[in-house]
Amino acid sequence: MALKYLPLIVGAPLVFAGEVKLAETEKALTFSQDGIEILTYHKAEVPAPEGADPVFRRSGFIHPLRSPKGGVVTGMHPEDHKHHLGLWHAWVKTKHGLDSPDFWNLGSKSGRVRFSKLLEKSENGFSVEQEQVAYKGPDKKETVVLKEILKVSVSSTGEANIIDYEVTQTNVSGVKLELPAYRYGGPLAYRGPHSWNKENSDYLTSAGKVRADSHATRADWCAVFGPTEKGDATTTMMGHPTNFDSPQRLRTWPDGKVFLCWTPIQEKPFEIGAGDSAVWRYRIIVSDGKPDQEKIKAWWESYRKP
After folding, report:
1. Per-domain residue ranges of the chain
2. For the whole model, what pTM was predicted?
3. pLDDT, tens digit (0-9, with 9 covering 90-100), for 285-305
């Protein structure tokens, strides 16, 4: 099936500062501004941590993600969840014909997400093709279930880095992909730095929920924040109103480290029929300091309007 490609769009009606530049190597795509990196997307597989099962290698994710001052606000391959990879996405609980591939938990060895090819790039954005691949039967036969177009565009206001993250998932397998209601998994996930914990970090949602009570609640946006090597920083994630089951429910952790997953199937099941497509849109804004609710509300208004 031929995939339709749409031009990259940066839709933030904000005041921008400085020039964002995109550099490409054989392994990665990296955005920077004034010599400070903003984010890195991995085309090549990043090896598993030393001593871990090689199955935890993966491509097709963003890490590190940085604040305007350069503080790192993501973590990769943490000891407690080696399949967590900065900013990424994958489906967990599925039904595909007679099989139930898990594209998220790499340790299950039943599925994964991977980079396929670069489609387009500009100074402030790129578009890539990714695949959600299932391994079926005793011989682990490879089946590409979803072909994805991931578009990432980046801008900066000086006080905040703005990342638009849009995924179009097309079922190319010839078999319906069912996504039963489940507590996590989906179109956007985030793992905070390994040093963030219950004592030094927190969540804040558009509904006023925090670490203790935000799990399974609906939100237009959710901010997570904590210390970095460049001072406190906040990562605010917004789900577009056109997404399925918007405002979507969140998966957050009340104790321990910082993890956030936008989970459109937490309450309602979803499916992508053979040949059908689903589109998911999010905006990630990384700023220095703790959350400024008035600024976040203004950012949300600028995002939700057409």
Report:
1. 24-304
2. 0.94
3. 999 999 999 999 999 999 998
